Amino acid sequence: MNCNFLLDNLVAYIHGELDKKAVMQIHQHVGNCEVCVKEEIELRRTSRMLDQVQFEALPDNFDRELQKKLAQIEKPLKPVKSDFRRIVYAIAATIIIMVGIQFFGSQILQSTRKPVHFKDFPTTQTVFKSEVTQSEVETSLRERFLQRYLQSRQHEKMKIKR
């Protein structure tokens, strides 16, 4: 006897539906297999719990009432003519809402931007007014580099002193 045979016949064994030979084989197997003993105990416990549950009887007219309700559900529903209008109205409302959101969104974005005036743009006179030579650019870059370098050195000395 193996565990699969026992598990296949356990319900019949508990309800006393097996012949004597099968019952003897199950008794011998359960005496040697701990897993099957636990399975039998659990199934017996479940069976006792189900025996304690009291089921209520259905009313006498239950079948007729059920048949009536099923017949009502099975009737095909007639298409309503106003469904087409509802769909068109829903699409129109969606389009109106989208246009409104786009309009108000653009208004908000425009109100947050800084207005641009023509006087803010440089003219040709101001662009060509200050012509800087290449040597002047190089000296100003060199001076800025030296200033930053000296500042970083001073900053490092201050850290070391602390």
Provide a short characterization of the protein structure.
The chain is mainly alpha-helical and 162 residues long. It has helices spanning 3-14, 20-32, 34-52, 62-74, 82-112, 124-129, 134-161. It starts with a helix and ends with a helix.
What's the overall geometry?
flat
Tally of strands: 0
Low-pLDDT runs: none
Euclidean distance between termini CA atoms: 87 Å
Beta fraction: under 5%
Reported for the largest beta sheet, the result is: none
Task: Write down the secondary-structure element order.
Answer: HHHHHHH
Structural class: mainly alpha
The multimeric state of the shown protein is: single chain
- Rounded to the nearest angstrom, the radius of gyration is 46 Å
Average pLDDT confidence is 78
How would you describe what is shown here?
This protein is mainly α and 162 residues long. Among the domains are: 3-55; 80-113. The chain has helices at residues 3-14, 20-32, 34-52, 62-74, 82-112, 124-129, 134-161.
Spell out the key features of this protein.
162 residues; 75% helix
Write the layout of secondary structure elements.
Blueprint: H1 3-14, H2 20-32, H3 34-52, H4 62-74, H5 82-112, H6 124-129, H7 134-161
Helix pairs in contact: 1-3, 2-3
